[in-house]
Protein backbone atom coordinates (compact mmCIF):
# COMPACT_ATOMS: atom_id res chain seq x y z
CA UNK A 1 0.00 0.00 0.00
CA UNK A 2 1.33 3.45 -0.93
CA UNK A 3 1.39 5.75 2.06
CA UNK A 4 -0.89 8.78 1.72
CA UNK A 5 -2.51 11.32 3.94
CA UNK A 6 -5.87 10.61 5.48
CA UNK A 7 -8.98 12.25 4.13
CA UNK A 8 -9.21 14.37 7.29
CA UNK A 9 -5.68 15.70 6.79
CA UNK A 10 -6.47 16.31 3.15
CA UNK A 11 -9.57 18.33 4.07
CA UNK A 12 -7.60 20.43 6.56
CA UNK A 13 -5.15 21.31 3.83
CA UNK A 14 -8.08 22.53 1.71
CA UNK A 15 -9.19 25.15 4.33
CA UNK A 16 -7.38 28.48 3.83
CA UNK A 17 -5.63 30.04 6.82
CA UNK A 18 -7.16 33.22 8.15
CA UNK A 19 -6.21 35.50 11.09
CA UNK A 20 -7.27 33.75 14.30
CA UNK A 21 -8.14 30.60 12.42
CA UNK A 22 -4.96 28.94 11.06
CA UNK A 23 -5.34 25.79 9.09
CA UNK A 24 -3.63 23.57 11.69
CA UNK A 25 -6.06 24.71 14.41
CA UNK A 26 -9.14 24.77 12.27
CA UNK A 27 -12.48 23.51 13.37
CA UNK A 28 -12.74 19.74 13.19
CA UNK A 29 -12.61 18.70 9.57
CA UNK A 30 -15.30 16.60 8.05
CA UNK A 31 -14.28 13.04 7.38
CA UNK A 32 -15.26 13.40 3.74
CA UNK A 33 -14.34 15.41 0.65
CA UNK A 34 -17.90 16.64 0.50
CA UNK A 35 -17.65 18.52 3.81
CA UNK A 36 -19.42 21.88 3.72
CA UNK A 37 -16.42 23.34 5.54
CA UNK A 38 -14.29 23.03 2.38
CA UNK A 39 -13.68 26.36 0.68
CA UNK A 40 -13.67 24.91 -2.81
CA UNK A 41 -17.08 24.47 -4.38
CA UNK A 42 -15.50 21.93 -6.69
CA UNK A 43 -15.01 19.52 -3.78
CA UNK A 44 -18.03 20.36 -1.64
CA UNK A 45 -20.61 18.07 -3.18
CA UNK A 46 -20.88 14.29 -3.41
CA UNK A 47 -20.37 12.51 -6.68
CA UNK A 48 -23.44 12.34 -8.87
CA UNK A 49 -25.37 9.11 -8.88
CA UNK A 50 -28.30 7.72 -10.69
CA UNK A 51 -29.37 7.49 -14.32
CA UNK A 52 -27.61 9.89 -16.65
CA UNK A 53 -24.76 10.64 -14.24
CA UNK A 54 -21.21 10.56 -15.65
CA UNK A 55 -18.98 7.66 -14.57
CA UNK A 56 -17.76 8.25 -11.01
CA UNK A 57 -14.09 7.88 -11.88
CA UNK A 58 -14.53 10.62 -14.47
CA UNK A 59 -16.24 12.86 -11.93
CA UNK A 60 -13.44 12.29 -9.45
CA UNK A 61 -10.75 12.97 -12.03
CA UNK A 62 -12.36 16.27 -13.05
CA UNK A 63 -12.87 17.31 -9.44
CA UNK A 64 -9.22 16.74 -8.50
CA UNK A 65 -7.97 18.38 -11.68
CA UNK A 66 -9.94 21.51 -10.92
CA UNK A 67 -8.62 21.70 -7.37
CA UNK A 68 -5.02 21.31 -8.57
CA UNK A 69 -5.37 23.90 -11.33
CA UNK A 70 -6.93 26.37 -8.90
CA UNK A 71 -4.04 25.97 -6.48
CA UNK A 72 -6.33 24.57 -3.78
CA UNK A 73 -4.09 21.51 -3.67
CA UNK A 74 -0.55 22.92 -3.43
CA UNK A 75 2.41 21.28 -5.11
CA UNK A 76 3.86 18.52 -2.95
CA UNK A 77 0.69 17.99 -0.97
CA UNK A 78 -0.33 14.37 -0.45
CA UNK A 79 -3.64 13.01 -1.63
CA UNK A 80 -5.71 10.73 0.62
CA UNK A 81 -5.05 7.03 0.32
CA UNK A 82 -7.19 5.21 -2.19
CA UNK A 83 -8.78 3.16 0.61
CA UNK A 84 -9.67 6.20 2.74
CA UNK A 85 -11.01 8.19 -0.17
CA UNK A 86 -13.11 5.31 -1.46
CA UNK A 87 -14.65 4.76 1.97
CA UNK A 88 -15.48 8.42 2.50
CA UNK A 89 -17.02 8.86 -0.95
CA UNK A 90 -18.68 5.42 -0.80
CA UNK A 91 -17.23 4.35 -4.10
CA UNK A 92 -15.11 1.44 -5.21
CA UNK A 93 -11.42 1.56 -4.38
CA UNK A 94 -10.70 0.60 -8.00
CA UNK A 95 -12.50 3.77 -9.04
CA UNK A 96 -10.06 5.85 -6.97
CA UNK A 97 -7.05 3.88 -8.20
CA UNK A 98 -8.08 4.43 -11.82
CA UNK A 99 -8.55 8.15 -11.16
CA UNK A 100 -5.11 8.43 -9.52
CA UNK A 101 -3.50 6.52 -12.40
CA UNK A 102 -5.08 8.88 -14.94
CA UNK A 103 -3.92 11.95 -13.02
CA UNK A 104 -0.42 10.46 -12.85
CA UNK A 105 -0.42 9.79 -16.62
CA UNK A 106 -1.42 13.38 -17.34
CA UNK A 107 1.17 14.82 -14.96
CA UNK A 108 -1.14 16.24 -12.31
CA UNK A 109 0.25 14.01 -9.54
CA UNK A 110 3.38 12.00 -8.86
CA UNK A 111 3.27 8.56 -7.22
CA UNK A 112 6.25 7.18 -5.31
CA UNK A 113 7.00 5.24 -2.09
CA UNK A 114 6.01 8.25 -0.01
CA UNK A 115 2.49 8.35 -1.45
CA UNK A 116 0.62 10.23 -4.19
CA UNK A 117 1.57 13.90 -4.25
CA UNK A 118 0.46 16.91 -6.30
CA UNK A 119 2.96 17.66 -9.04
CA UNK A 120 4.59 21.08 -9.39
CA UNK A 121 2.94 22.90 -12.31
CA UNK A 122 4.83 25.70 -14.04
CA UNK A 123 1.77 27.88 -14.66
CA UNK A 124 0.29 30.12 -11.97
CA UNK A 125 -2.96 28.88 -10.42
CA UNK A 126 -5.99 29.69 -12.54
CA UNK A 127 -8.84 31.80 -11.28
CA UNK A 128 -11.92 30.01 -10.02
CA UNK A 129 -13.90 31.18 -13.06
CA UNK A 130 -11.25 29.95 -15.48
CA UNK A 131 -10.97 26.59 -13.74
CA UNK A 132 -14.74 26.15 -13.69
CA UNK A 133 -15.05 27.02 -17.38
CA UNK A 134 -12.15 24.78 -18.41
CA UNK A 135 -13.48 21.90 -16.37
CA UNK A 136 -17.02 22.35 -17.66
CA UNK A 137 -15.73 22.28 -21.24
CA UNK A 138 -13.63 19.18 -20.58
CA UNK A 139 -16.49 17.43 -18.84
CA UNK A 140 -18.88 18.29 -21.63
CA UNK A 141 -16.49 16.81 -24.21
CA UNK A 142 -15.80 13.63 -22.30
CA UNK A 143 -19.31 12.92 -21.05
CA UNK A 144 -21.44 14.25 -23.88
CA UNK A 145 -23.27 10.97 -24.17
CA UNK A 146 -23.83 10.58 -20.45
CA UNK A 147 -24.42 14.01 -19.00
CA UNK A 148 -27.94 15.29 -18.90
CA UNK A 149 -29.11 18.03 -21.26
CA UNK A 150 -29.36 20.51 -18.43
CA UNK A 151 -25.75 19.96 -17.36
CA UNK A 152 -24.47 20.34 -20.90
CA UNK A 153 -26.46 23.52 -21.37
CA UNK A 154 -24.98 24.99 -18.20
CA UNK A 155 -21.43 24.24 -19.31
CA UNK A 156 -22.08 25.68 -22.75
CA UNK A 157 -23.60 28.82 -21.28
CA UNK A 158 -20.58 29.30 -19.02
CA UNK A 159 -18.17 28.87 -21.94
CA UNK A 160 -20.22 31.23 -24.11
CA UNK A 161 -20.22 33.89 -21.41
CA UNK A 162 -16.45 33.73 -21.06
CA UNK A 163 -16.01 33.82 -24.85
CA UNK A 164 -18.29 36.84 -25.14
CA UNK A 165 -16.44 38.68 -22.44
CA UNK A 166 -13.10 38.04 -24.16
CA UNK A 167 -14.35 39.08 -27.61
CA UNK A 168 -15.83 42.32 -26.27
CA UNK A 169 -12.60 43.45 -24.61
CA UNK A 170 -11.45 46.84 -25.94
CA UNK A 171 -8.58 46.69 -28.49
CA UNK A 172 -5.11 47.54 -27.22
CA UNK A 173 -3.52 50.73 -28.46
CA UNK A 174 -0.12 49.10 -28.94
CA UNK A 175 0.85 45.79 -30.45
CA UNK A 176 2.27 42.72 -28.76
CA UNK A 177 5.69 43.23 -30.34
CA UNK A 178 5.95 46.78 -29.01
CA UNK A 179 5.01 45.69 -25.50
CA UNK A 180 7.47 42.82 -25.62
CA UNK A 181 10.28 45.22 -26.63
CA UNK A 182 9.42 47.32 -23.57
CA UNK A 183 9.54 44.26 -21.33
CA UNK A 184 5.82 44.37 -20.60
CA UNK A 185 3.74 41.24 -20.20
CA UNK A 186 0.93 41.08 -22.81
CA UNK A 187 -2.53 40.77 -21.29
CA UNK A 188 -4.31 37.45 -21.52
CA UNK A 189 -6.96 38.82 -23.90
CA UNK A 190 -4.25 39.95 -26.34
CA UNK A 191 -2.56 36.57 -26.16
CA UNK A 192 -5.78 35.03 -27.49
CA UNK A 193 -6.20 37.57 -30.29
CA UNK A 194 -6.45 36.26 -33.85
CA UNK A 195 -4.04 37.16 -36.64
CA UNK A 196 -4.39 40.66 -38.02
CA UNK A 197 -4.95 39.28 -41.52
CA UNK A 198 -8.40 38.08 -40.46
CA UNK A 199 -9.54 41.69 -40.16
CA UNK A 200 -9.03 41.98 -43.93
CA UNK A 201 -11.06 38.85 -44.71
CA UNK A 202 -14.59 40.19 -44.40
CA UNK A 203 -17.43 37.73 -44.78
CA UNK A 204 -19.86 38.47 -47.60
CA UNK A 205 -21.67 35.17 -47.35
CA UNK A 206 -25.21 34.86 -46.12
CA UNK A 207 -26.52 31.82 -44.23
CA UNK A 208 -29.07 31.19 -46.95
CA UNK A 209 -29.95 27.84 -48.48
CA UNK A 210 -27.95 27.64 -51.71
CA UNK A 211 -30.67 25.49 -53.25
CA UNK A 212 -32.99 28.51 -53.41
CA UNK A 213 -33.78 29.71 -56.93
CA UNK A 214 -31.54 32.35 -58.52
CA UNK A 215 -28.46 31.28 -56.55
CA UNK A 216 -25.39 32.20 -58.65
CA UNK A 217 -22.93 29.41 -59.34
CA UNK A 218 -25.15 26.49 -58.35
CA UNK A 219 -25.59 23.97 -61.18
CA UNK A 220 -28.70 21.94 -61.96
CA UNK A 221 -28.13 19.34 -59.28
CA UNK A 222 -31.45 17.61 -59.91
CA UNK A 223 -30.25 16.83 -63.44
CA UNK A 224 -27.00 15.19 -62.41
CA UNK A 225 -26.73 11.53 -63.57
CA UNK A 226 -26.47 9.91 -60.17
CA UNK A 227 -26.80 6.39 -61.55
CA UNK A 228 -23.90 6.83 -63.97
CA UNK A 229 -21.77 8.32 -61.20
CA UNK A 230 -22.58 5.40 -58.90
CA UNK A 231 -21.57 2.90 -61.60
CA UNK A 232 -18.26 4.69 -62.09
CA UNK A 233 -17.72 4.66 -58.34
CA UNK A 234 -18.46 0.94 -58.13
CA UNK A 235 -15.93 0.26 -60.89
CA UNK A 236 -13.31 2.30 -59.05
CA UNK A 237 -13.92 0.30 -55.86
CA UNK A 238 -13.79 -3.03 -57.66
CA UNK A 239 -10.53 -2.14 -59.39
CA UNK A 240 -8.70 -1.28 -56.17
CA UNK A 241 -10.97 -1.80 -53.13
CA UNK A 242 -8.23 -1.62 -50.49
CA UNK A 243 -5.92 0.91 -52.12
CA UNK A 244 -8.63 3.53 -52.36
CA UNK A 245 -8.81 3.68 -48.57
CA UNK A 246 -5.14 4.59 -48.15
CA UNK A 247 -3.19 7.79 -48.78
CA UNK A 248 -2.87 8.70 -52.42
CA UNK A 249 -0.23 10.62 -54.30
CA UNK A 250 0.12 14.12 -52.80
CA UNK A 251 -0.58 15.85 -56.11
CA UNK A 252 -3.52 13.64 -57.03
CA UNK A 253 -4.36 10.30 -58.58
CA UNK A 254 -2.35 9.69 -61.79
CA UNK A 255 -5.45 8.42 -63.61
CA UNK A 256 -7.37 11.64 -62.94
CA UNK A 257 -4.43 13.90 -63.78
CA UNK A 258 -3.97 12.10 -67.09
CA UNK A 259 -7.69 12.32 -67.87
CA UNK A 260 -7.71 16.07 -67.09
CA UNK A 261 -4.61 16.67 -69.20
CA UNK A 262 -6.20 14.94 -72.19
CA UNK A 263 -9.45 16.86 -71.74
CA UNK A 264 -7.74 20.26 -71.40
CA UNK A 265 -5.55 19.74 -74.45
CA UNK A 266 -8.54 18.87 -76.63
CA UNK A 267 -11.33 21.12 -75.30
CA UNK A 268 -9.50 24.14 -73.86
CA UNK A 269 -6.27 24.35 -75.86
CA UNK A 270 -4.15 24.17 -72.72
CA UNK A 271 -0.48 23.20 -73.05
CA UNK A 272 0.01 20.57 -70.33
CA UNK A 273 0.79 17.04 -69.35
CA UNK A 274 -0.17 15.06 -66.28
CA UNK A 275 3.10 15.78 -64.47
CA UNK A 276 2.23 19.48 -64.24
CA UNK A 277 -1.31 19.02 -62.89
CA UNK A 278 -2.07 19.18 -59.17
CA UNK A 279 -5.46 18.11 -57.80
CA UNK A 280 -6.74 20.57 -55.20
CA UNK A 281 -9.66 21.13 -52.84
CA UNK A 282 -11.70 23.03 -55.42
CA UNK A 283 -10.59 26.20 -57.18
CA UNK A 284 -10.11 27.91 -53.81
CA UNK A 285 -7.47 25.35 -52.88
CA UNK A 286 -5.68 26.04 -56.17
CA UNK A 287 -5.67 29.79 -55.51
CA UNK A 288 -4.28 29.26 -52.01
CA UNK A 289 -1.54 27.04 -53.42
CA UNK A 290 -0.59 29.70 -55.97
CA UNK A 291 -0.14 32.19 -53.13
CA UNK A 292 1.98 29.72 -51.15
CA UNK A 293 4.21 28.89 -54.11
CA UNK A 294 4.85 32.30 -55.59
CA UNK A 295 4.50 35.08 -53.02
CA UNK A 296 5.93 36.41 -49.80
CA UNK A 297 4.03 38.57 -47.29
CA UNK A 298 3.84 42.13 -48.57
CA UNK A 299 3.96 41.23 -52.27
CA UNK A 300 1.36 42.88 -54.49
CA UNK A 301 -1.48 40.95 -56.11
CA UNK A 302 -3.95 42.32 -58.64
CA UNK A 303 -7.51 41.12 -58.93
CA UNK A 304 -10.53 42.09 -60.99
CA UNK A 305 -12.96 44.76 -59.78
CA UNK A 306 -15.68 43.65 -59.37
CA UNK A 307 -14.40 40.11 -59.15
CA UNK A 308 -14.31 36.73 -57.49
CA UNK A 309 -14.38 37.13 -53.72
CA UNK A 310 -12.48 33.91 -53.13
CA UNK A 311 -9.40 35.38 -54.82
CA UNK A 312 -9.46 38.34 -52.47
CA UNK A 313 -9.69 36.01 -49.46
CA UNK A 314 -6.79 33.87 -50.70
CA UNK A 315 -4.60 36.94 -51.26
CA UNK A 316 -5.43 38.44 -47.87
CA UNK A 317 -4.72 35.11 -46.20
CA UNK A 318 -1.24 35.31 -47.73
CA UNK A 319 -0.67 38.82 -46.32
CA UNK A 320 -0.49 40.28 -49.80
CA UNK A 321 -1.06 43.87 -50.84
CA UNK A 322 -4.30 43.56 -52.80
CA UNK A 323 -4.87 46.03 -55.62
CA UNK A 324 -8.19 45.97 -57.50
CA UNK A 325 -8.18 46.59 -61.28
CA UNK A 326 -11.39 47.76 -62.90
CA UNK A 327 -13.20 45.62 -65.45
CA UNK A 328 -14.95 46.96 -68.55
CA UNK A 329 -16.72 45.37 -71.50
CA UNK A 330 -13.41 43.84 -72.71
CA UNK A 331 -12.34 42.41 -69.37
CA UNK A 332 -9.69 43.57 -66.94
CA UNK A 333 -8.40 47.04 -67.87
CA UNK A 334 -4.94 47.71 -66.45
CA UNK A 335 -3.65 51.29 -66.68
CA UNK A 336 -0.09 51.40 -68.07
CA UNK A 337 1.05 53.39 -65.04
CA UNK A 338 0.04 50.55 -62.69
CA UNK A 339 2.99 48.43 -63.78
CA UNK A 340 5.34 51.01 -62.29
CA UNK A 341 3.18 52.25 -59.40
CA UNK A 342 2.14 48.82 -58.05
CA UNK A 343 4.17 46.11 -59.82
CA UNK A 344 2.41 42.80 -59.15
CA UNK A 345 3.66 39.37 -58.26
CA UNK A 346 0.29 37.74 -59.01
CA UNK A 347 -2.56 38.76 -61.33
CA UNK A 348 -5.87 36.95 -61.01
CA UNK A 349 -8.25 37.06 -63.96
CA UNK A 350 -11.24 35.19 -65.42
CA UNK A 351 -10.63 35.92 -69.11
CA UNK A 352 -13.10 33.53 -70.73
CA UNK A 353 -16.12 34.58 -68.66
CA UNK A 354 -15.37 37.37 -66.19
CA UNK A 355 -16.99 36.83 -62.82
CA UNK A 356 -19.48 38.35 -62.24
CA UNK A 357 -19.88 40.76 -65.21
CA UNK A 358 -19.59 38.12 -67.94
CA UNK A 359 -17.06 40.11 -70.01
CA UNK A 360 -14.64 38.25 -72.29
CA UNK A 361 -11.03 39.45 -72.22
CA UNK A 362 -10.18 40.50 -75.78
CA UNK A 363 -7.27 38.81 -77.52
CA UNK A 364 -5.42 42.13 -77.75
CA UNK A 365 -5.59 42.55 -73.99
CA UNK A 366 -4.64 38.92 -73.44
CA UNK A 367 -1.47 39.26 -75.48
CA UNK A 368 -0.61 42.58 -73.84
CA UNK A 369 -1.19 41.13 -70.38
CA UNK A 370 1.02 38.13 -71.13
CA UNK A 371 3.81 40.36 -72.47
CA UNK A 372 3.72 42.89 -69.63
CA UNK A 373 3.53 40.15 -66.99
CA UNK A 374 6.58 38.45 -68.45
CA UNK A 375 8.51 41.72 -68.45
CA UNK A 376 7.52 42.45 -64.86
CA UNK A 377 8.30 38.95 -63.57
CA UNK A 378 4.64 38.50 -62.60
CA UNK A 379 2.50 35.38 -62.77
CA UNK A 380 -1.07 35.28 -64.09
CA UNK A 381 -3.69 33.05 -62.45
CA UNK A 382 -6.23 32.14 -65.12
CA UNK A 383 -9.41 31.05 -63.36
CA UNK A 384 -11.38 29.09 -65.97
CA UNK A 385 -14.25 28.26 -63.64
CA UNK A 386 -17.19 27.69 -66.05
CA UNK A 387 -15.81 28.01 -69.58
CA UNK A 388 -17.42 24.69 -70.58
CA UNK A 389 -20.82 26.40 -70.77
CA UNK A 390 -20.60 28.64 -73.83
CA UNK A 391 -24.09 29.42 -75.13
CA UNK A 392 -23.27 31.37 -78.29
CA UNK A 393 -20.60 30.59 -80.86
CA UNK A 394 -17.55 28.39 -80.47
CA UNK A 395 -15.81 27.87 -77.11
CA UNK A 396 -13.16 30.46 -76.31
CA UNK A 397 -9.72 28.92 -75.87
CA UNK A 398 -7.76 29.38 -72.68
CA UNK A 399 -5.27 32.24 -72.45
CA UNK A 400 -2.65 29.80 -71.18
CA UNK A 401 -2.39 28.24 -74.64
CA UNK A 402 -1.86 31.48 -76.57
CA UNK A 403 1.93 31.52 -76.18
CA UNK A 404 4.52 28.87 -75.46
CA UNK A 405 5.84 29.07 -71.90
CA UNK A 406 3.19 31.66 -70.99
CA UNK A 407 3.54 32.94 -67.40
CA UNK A 408 0.13 31.48 -66.53
CA UNK A 409 -1.09 29.15 -63.80
CA UNK A 410 -4.32 27.62 -65.07
CA UNK A 411 -7.03 26.91 -62.47
CA UNK A 412 -10.08 24.75 -63.08
CA UNK A 413 -12.82 23.09 -61.04
CA UNK A 414 -15.51 20.44 -61.28
CA UNK A 415 -17.86 22.33 -58.97
CA UNK A 416 -19.86 23.76 -61.87
CA UNK A 417 -19.58 20.94 -64.39
CA UNK A 418 -20.32 18.22 -61.80
CA UNK A 419 -21.49 19.24 -58.33
CA UNK A 420 -20.02 21.53 -55.64
CA UNK A 421 -19.80 18.90 -52.89
CA UNK A 422 -17.26 16.97 -54.98
CA UNK A 423 -14.63 19.58 -53.99
CA UNK A 424 -12.25 18.70 -56.81
CA UNK A 425 -10.25 21.41 -58.55
CA UNK A 426 -6.94 21.40 -60.36
CA UNK A 427 -3.95 23.62 -61.03
CA UNK A 428 -1.77 23.44 -64.15
CA UNK A 429 1.73 24.72 -63.40
CA UNK A 430 4.07 26.23 -65.99
CA UNK A 431 7.20 24.22 -66.71
CA UNK A 432 9.34 26.92 -65.12
CA UNK A 433 7.58 26.34 -61.78
CA UNK A 434 6.63 22.66 -61.90
CA UNK A 435 10.09 21.11 -61.85
CA UNK A 436 11.77 23.19 -59.12
CA UNK A 437 8.65 23.45 -56.94
CA UNK A 438 7.39 19.87 -57.16
CA UNK A 439 9.51 18.44 -54.29
CA UNK A 440 8.19 21.14 -51.95
CA UNK A 441 4.63 20.68 -53.20
CA UNK A 442 4.78 16.94 -52.52
CA UNK A 443 5.98 17.67 -49.00
CA UNK A 444 3.27 20.32 -48.41
CA UNK A 445 0.28 18.31 -49.64
CA UNK A 446 -1.31 15.04 -48.56
CA UNK A 447 -3.16 12.72 -50.87
CA UNK A 448 -6.85 12.22 -50.19
CA UNK A 449 -10.31 11.85 -51.74
CA UNK A 450 -8.94 8.86 -53.64
CA UNK A 451 -12.31 7.27 -54.33
CA UNK A 452 -13.75 10.53 -55.66
CA UNK A 453 -10.70 11.12 -57.85
CA UNK A 454 -10.72 7.61 -59.30
CA UNK A 455 -14.45 7.85 -59.90
CA UNK A 456 -14.01 11.18 -61.68
CA UNK A 457 -11.28 9.70 -63.85
CA UNK A 458 -13.56 6.81 -64.84
CA UNK A 459 -16.43 9.25 -65.45
CA UNK A 460 -14.26 11.16 -67.93
CA UNK A 461 -12.72 8.12 -69.60
CA UNK A 462 -16.02 6.32 -70.23
CA UNK A 463 -17.53 9.38 -71.95
CA UNK A 464 -20.11 10.18 -69.29
CA UNK A 465 -18.51 13.53 -68.54
CA UNK A 466 -18.78 14.72 -72.16
CA UNK A 467 -22.35 13.51 -72.44
CA UNK A 468 -23.27 15.27 -69.19
CA UNK A 469 -21.70 18.53 -70.39
CA UNK A 470 -23.65 18.33 -73.62
CA UNK A 471 -26.94 17.91 -71.80
CA UNK A 472 -26.14 20.75 -69.39
CA UNK A 473 -25.15 23.16 -72.20
CA UNK A 474 -28.55 22.68 -73.81
CA UNK A 475 -30.36 23.02 -70.49
CA UNK A 476 -28.50 26.17 -69.41
CA UNK A 477 -28.95 27.76 -72.84
CA UNK A 478 -32.70 27.24 -72.47
CA UNK A 479 -32.75 28.61 -68.93
CA UNK A 480 -30.70 31.66 -69.80
CA UNK A 481 -33.01 32.49 -72.70
CA UNK A 482 -36.02 32.19 -70.39
CA UNK A 483 -34.38 34.49 -67.83
CA UNK A 484 -33.65 37.12 -70.49
CA UNK A 485 -37.25 37.04 -71.66
CA UNK A 486 -38.56 37.31 -68.11
CA UNK A 487 -36.29 40.29 -67.36
CA UNK A 488 -37.50 42.13 -70.43
CA UNK A 489 -41.16 41.37 -69.77
CA UNK A 490 -41.57 41.41 -65.99
CA UNK A 491 -38.79 43.25 -64.12
CA UNK A 492 -40.38 46.65 -64.71
CA UNK A 493 -37.20 48.52 -63.73
CA UNK A 494 -34.61 50.14 -65.98
CA UNK A 495 -31.70 47.74 -66.26
CA UNK A 496 -28.80 46.58 -68.38
CA UNK A 497 -27.89 42.90 -68.78
CA UNK A 498 -24.11 42.42 -68.76
CA UNK A 499 -22.26 39.69 -70.65
CA UNK A 500 -24.36 36.60 -70.65
CA UNK A 501 -22.99 34.36 -73.42
CA UNK A 502 -21.55 31.80 -71.00
CA UNK A 503 -21.87 30.33 -67.56
CA UNK A 504 -24.66 29.90 -65.03
CA UNK A 505 -25.66 33.48 -64.21
CA UNK A 506 -26.64 36.87 -65.63
CA UNK A 507 -25.63 40.19 -64.09
CA UNK A 508 -28.25 42.93 -64.18
CA UNK A 509 -27.03 46.49 -63.59
CA UNK A 510 -29.57 48.79 -61.90
CA UNK A 511 -29.77 52.57 -61.48
CA UNK A 512 -28.22 53.87 -58.23
CA UNK A 513 -31.60 54.66 -56.69
CA UNK A 514 -32.27 50.91 -56.44
CA UNK A 515 -29.91 49.78 -53.63
CA UNK A 516 -28.79 46.31 -54.59
CA UNK A 517 -27.99 44.99 -51.14
CA UNK A 518 -31.39 45.92 -49.76
CA UNK A 519 -33.05 44.34 -52.79
CA UNK A 520 -31.11 41.13 -52.22
CA UNK A 521 -31.91 41.07 -48.50
CA UNK A 522 -35.62 41.53 -49.17
CA UNK A 523 -35.60 38.97 -52.00
CA UNK A 524 -34.13 36.33 -49.70
CA UNK A 525 -37.01 36.82 -47.31
CA UNK A 526 -39.30 35.82 -50.19
CA UNK A 527 -37.37 32.67 -51.11
CA UNK A 528 -35.06 34.05 -53.83
CA UNK A 529 -31.27 34.12 -53.61
CA UNK A 530 -29.61 36.51 -56.07
CA UNK A 531 -26.37 38.29 -55.07
CA UNK A 532 -25.66 42.00 -55.01
CA UNK A 533 -23.19 43.20 -57.63
CA UNK A 534 -21.62 45.68 -55.21
CA UNK A 535 -20.61 42.85 -52.85
CA UNK A 536 -18.10 41.63 -55.46
CA UNK A 537 -16.20 44.94 -55.45
CA UNK A 538 -13.40 45.96 -53.10
CA UNK A 539 -14.23 49.65 -53.60
CA UNK A 540 -17.73 49.74 -55.16
CA UNK A 541 -18.56 52.49 -57.64
CA UNK A 542 -22.06 53.63 -58.64
CA UNK A 543 -21.92 51.35 -61.70
CA UNK A 544 -21.37 48.37 -59.38
CA UNK A 545 -25.03 48.41 -58.41
CA UNK A 546 -27.14 45.49 -59.54
CA UNK A 547 -28.08 41.87 -58.99
CA UNK A 548 -26.35 38.68 -60.04
CA UNK A 549 -29.02 36.11 -60.91
CA UNK A 550 -28.19 32.43 -61.17
CA UNK A 551 -30.19 30.28 -63.55
CA UNK A 552 -28.30 26.99 -63.21
CA UNK A 553 -30.52 25.65 -60.44
CA UNK A 554 -33.81 27.28 -61.55
CA UNK A 555 -36.14 25.78 -64.13
CA UNK A 556 -37.15 27.98 -67.06
CA UNK A 557 -40.88 27.98 -66.28
CA UNK A 558 -40.30 29.62 -62.87
CA UNK A 559 -38.61 32.78 -64.13
CA UNK A 560 -41.69 34.87 -65.10
CA UNK A 561 -43.14 34.73 -61.58
CA UNK A 562 -39.75 35.07 -59.88
CA UNK A 563 -38.68 38.10 -61.90
CA UNK A 564 -42.03 39.80 -61.39
CA UNK A 565 -41.61 39.31 -57.65
CA UNK A 566 -38.03 40.62 -57.83
CA UNK A 567 -39.26 43.71 -59.68
CA UNK A 568 -41.79 44.38 -56.93
CA UNK A 569 -39.03 44.11 -54.35
CA UNK A 570 -36.83 46.52 -56.30
CA UNK A 571 -39.57 49.15 -56.59
CA UNK A 572 -40.31 48.93 -52.88
CA UNK A 573 -36.61 49.41 -52.09
CA UNK A 574 -36.23 52.40 -54.38
CA UNK A 575 -34.77 55.50 -52.75
CA UNK A 576 -36.25 58.95 -53.47
CA UNK A 577 -34.45 60.68 -56.34
Could you give a short description of this structure?
By secondary structure, the chain is α/β, with parallel strands linked by helices. The protein has helices spanning 7-14, 56-69, 82-89, 93-106, 128-142, 149-167, 176-181, 188-191, 226-239, 254-267, 282-294, 309-317, 338-341, 363-376, 431-444, 450-461, 464-490, 516-525, 559-573; strands spanning 109-112, 115-118, 277-280, 300-305, 321-328, 331-332, 346-349, 379-383, 408-413, 425-428, 496-498, 505-509, 531-532, 546-550. The strands form 3 sheets. Strands 3-10-9-8-7-4-5-6 form an 8-stranded mixed β-sheet, sandwiched between helices. Strands 11-12-14-13 form a 4-stranded antiparallel β-sheet, with helices on one face.
Explain this structure to me?
There is one protein chain. The chain has helices spanning 7-14, 56-69, 82-89, 93-106, 128-142, 149-167, 176-181, 188-191, 226-239, 254-267, 282-294, 309-317, 338-341, 363-376, 431-444, 450-461, 464-490, 516-525, 559-573, and strands at residues 109-112, 115-118, 277-280, 300-305, 321-328, 331-332, 346-349, 379-383, 408-413, 425-428, 496-498, 505-509, 531-532, 546-550. It is α/β, with parallel strands linked by helices and 577 residues long. It has 3 domains: 7-147, Arc Repressor Mutant, subunit A; 224-462, 3-Layer(aba) Sandwich (Aspartate Aminotransferase, domain 2), CATH 3.40.640.10; 468-573, Aspartate Aminotransferase, domain 1 (Alpha-Beta Complex), CATH 3.90.1150. The strands form 3 sheets. An 8-stranded mixed sheet has the order 3-10-9-8-7-4-5-6, with helices on both faces. Strands 11-12-14-13 form a 4-stranded antiparallel sheet, with helices on one face. Helix 2 crosses helix 4, helix 2 (56-69) runs antiparallel to helix 5 and helix 5 (128-142) packs across helix 6. The longest helix has 27 residues, at 464-490. The relative contact order is 0.09. Residues 12-40 and 141-181 have low confidence and may be disordered.
